[in-house]
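Notes from the 1:1 (GR / supervisor)

We went over the backlog. Supervisor wanted to see one worked example end to end before approving the batch request, so GR pasted a single chain during the call. The sequence is below; no edits were made to it. Supervisor asked that the structure be written out right there so they could see what the output format looks like.
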Amino acid sequence: AGAGRAGRVQAAQAAAVIGVTALVMTTQLPAVAGAEDQGLQIMAAAGDKTGRVVSMADLRAFDFLRGQVDASPTPFSILSAPEEGMGWGYVTHDLPMVFTHYLNDRQADPLDTTDVLFHADQLNGDPANPVDQAACRLGIRYIVASPPMFWSYLDPYPSFLNLHNAPGLTPVYEENAPDPEDQVFVYEVDSWDPRYCRSVR
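Structure output shown during the call:
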């Protein structure tokens, strides 16, 4: 019986030590990194699209977009092709990305997100245009394109290949480098109006 009690006491003591250690470790842990934490930016810059992260050119585009967010009195959203990885801007720069993940199911569901993603090149600046209306409901003020796709077996969205011809988009930022991985293009949606177009975020 004495041996049993001693074993229970030792177990209780061990549990107490573990609990105190966990408490100390928890209180000594740094606060959760902010979305613009420099360490996250360095981590992202250390790779390229082959490594499933963004490039330095992408980070510079994020800097530009962050400036637009900070300067706007009205919140808005930013559209990108999920498989291009620009949703990473949500992490590094706290950008209001429509897609914060890396793969779209590519189903033609009757959703505003699907409509704008597949038909972004049909934005024409007319608030009566269904694609502009979908963009307005999502609060999309900017579209950012950064080819290529992460996965080589995925074809790019035809709409994103034709963004430069969309009558309702105005180019506001670009890095058109020889290496496709360093090419980034940002367009502003002409029909975006802060009186009517509110971000869903």
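Supervisor's comment: The two ends are 63 Å apart (CA to CA).
Batch request approved.
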